[in-house]
Amino acid sequence: MRFDTVIIGGGLAGMTCGIRLAEAGQRCAIVSQGQSAIHFSSGSFDLLGHLPDGRSVTDPVAGIAELAETAPSHPYSKIGAERCARYAQEAPELLRSAGIQVAGDSRRNHFRITPMGKAKATWLTIDGYLTTDEAGRLPFKTVCIVNVEGFLDFYPEFIAQEFREAGVTCRFGSFNHPDVEQIRKNPSEMRSANIARVFDHEANLEAFAAELRKLAEGCDALILPALIGINRNDSLEFLRTRVGLPIYLLPTLPPSIPGIRAQQALQRRFRALGGEYFLGDSVVSAEMEGSRVARIFTANHGNIPFEAAHFVLATGSFFSKGLQATPDRIVEPVFGADTEFVPNRAEWYTLRFFDRQAYQAFGVKTDSALRVVKEGQVLENLYGAGAGLAGFHPVQEECGAGVSMLSALHVAENISGMKR
After folding, report:
1. Helix count and strand count (H, E) for the chain
2. Is 162 helix (H, G, I), strand (E, B) or coil?
3. CB atoms < 10 A from the CB of 229, how many?
4. CA–CA distance, 221 with 168 (Å, rounded to integer)
5. Quick check: 216 and 247 in contact, CB under 8 A?
6. pLDDT at position 181, please?
7. Would you state the CATH architecture of domain 2-107+260-416?
8. Which of the residues in the chain have pLDDT under 70?
């Protein structure tokens, strides 16, 4: 099989790169082993929340410009502040073109309310999820926090505690339905995606709206867990129209409805542009011709190779097995690419869970064009994008989604030669 570009990995970086290249007219394939980390998304996309020294970032673009001096190996530093600023303007439009409606500004972080009710700085948030421009301030005075009976991955009391500190009066409500009771017979099935499928049926959504109208009396807004809209786009607007009151969603613990919806939307967009998506397949070997990747072979296609002018390594980090740890080194398993890591394993992590963990910055070595390095040599047609890149701390710096999208756009631009 012959393509212009083959992308290995179907997460946020792989999908972003594939969509941009397909928009440029390339024939692309994505080989994806399974579910990506997008399924665990909270409904927001971070660009930069903290600098490596711990300082909070208000203006992500300005923060990225500082990284050139303080963190030269950071993917943003390799891409360059000017390009990052441009890609940060393009990324929301790419999401919207896929049907993912987001709001946010790359020059000013806003705050998204987390599943525990806390305010977290972020770049883009999917429409319908509760946000605020200022931490400690909420757009209402009295709310009802509503849960589905038996759903354990949502914590109204913790949320109310945070809201009360912001001066908000909180009440509680619950909803039950025979179809939900059917799911509850098996506690392991009482998950957000299964409940959301119940509310895909209009009669059930109508019953939910009727109960919310009762609970809304005397409130400025309703707060719901993200348990609606897995297969229909109008669920939230349906409820808002019938209740006649602002309704905001809060993400739940994974798997998350906004993450599943985002993954599905990106896949649809890629396929609509002519891309070929090979789900449930994994790369088992690659053949080189000099400093170029000639072809790859996958588990499902046996001796039928994937050939392309360009390849993109977007397999992620340890979570998705894009990186693997041995007792003494970090390995990239597909191409055997060079990796950056600390030689002394005792320095890879600390026992304090929330500390800055060194292993989070381990990853694949690349040049400024994000071409992958192997045995000290830059591979001419193999690029790296996303969580598997070296040099950044996605959790502490709150930049995981931004690195995935901006590195993918940078790679796509380098491959296609097209500057938007």
Report:
1. 11, 22
2. helix
3. 23
4. 11
5. no
6. 87
7. 3-Layer(bba) Sandwich (3.50)
8. 187, 418-420
Domain boundaries for CATH 3.40.50 within the chain = 130-250
**Cα radius of gyration (the chain):** 22
Phi-psi region of 25 (alpha: psi -120 to 50; beta: other; left: phi over 0): left
Angle between helices 257-272 and 12-23 (to 10 degrees): 30
Distances (CA, A) of 153 to 115, 116, 156, 225: 9, 10, 10, 9
Q: Among residues 214, 218, 59, 223, which one has the least CA distance to residue 139? A: 223
Cβ-contact 406, 399 below 8 angstroms: no
Per-residue pLDDT, 402: 98
pTM beyond 0.85: yes
CA-CA-CA-CA torsion for 263, 268, 271, 272, nearest 10 degrees?
-150
How much is the pLDDT for 420? Answer: 47
Do 238 and 245 touch, CB atoms closer than 8 A?
Answer: no
pLDDT of residue 418: 58
SS3 103: strand
Phi then psi dihedrals of residue 42, to 5 deg:
-95, 5
* 382 Cβ contact partners less than 8 Å away, ≥ 6 residues apart: 292, 293, 310, 311, 312, 313, 335, 337, 371, 372
**CB atoms near residue 110 (< 10 Å):** 20
* SS3 state of residue 412: helix
| Residue given tokens 């756009």 in the structure block | 409
For residue 46 the two structure tokens come to 């971070």
d(Cα 204, Cα 212) in Å, to the nearest integer? 12
pLDDT at 354: 78
Q: Name the residue with tokens 């994505």.
A: 30
113 neighbors 250 (Cβ within 8 angstroms)? yes
Task: Say which CATH architecture domain 130-250 belongs to.
Answer: 3-Layer(aba) Sandwich (3.40)
Indicate where the chain has its CATH 3.50.50.60 domain(s): 2-107+260-416
Place of tokens 């946000």: 131
* β-pairing verdict for 276-279 and 247-250: unpaired
In DSSP terms, 248 is beta-bridged to 223
- Single out the residue of 398, 400, 385 nearest to residue 10, CA to CA: 385
